[in-house]
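Allow me, if you will, to draw on your knowledge of protein folds for a short while. I have a record of one protein: its chain in single-letter code and its fold written as discrete structure tokens. I remain grateful for any guidance, and I place the record below:
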Amino acid sequence: MKKIAIGSDHGGFALKEFLRQRLEGEGWRLEDFGCATPDPVEYPDIAFALARAVAARPEEYEVGVLCCGTGIGVSIAANKVKGIRAALCADCFSARMAREHNNANVITLGGRTTGPELAWEMVKAFLGARYQGGVHAPRVKALTDV
């Protein structure tokens, strides 16, 4: 079974911990890229570390889950890493479509903007979806080839 890479800054720490507990309760293996406390940290450091691992070792990581205050900062940072398609999601439909149409390999969430139960439902939707390829393949290839 592959692992899920998970990480957050201080603004997403509580949400990350909530999702970590839920994922572990469902039997997922996790690798936590930080942070370990709610003390302030630099979100790019955590996002880059997680994204580099997911991009370099897709055979090891199913996906990544990143949280910050809004999900915006970690999304921008993760998408700087070649091979990452990070999607900031605010609803379950977008979480599913991110995987099915965009072959997203990281979901980003806002700890200050998204309730934990909704975030959990989005993560489940993201994990349960599979890339459909087909008409979406040339678009994803264009994103990947940049």
Remarks:
- The mean pLDDT is 97.
- Helices lie at 13-25, 43-56, 72-78, 92-100, 116-128, 137-145.
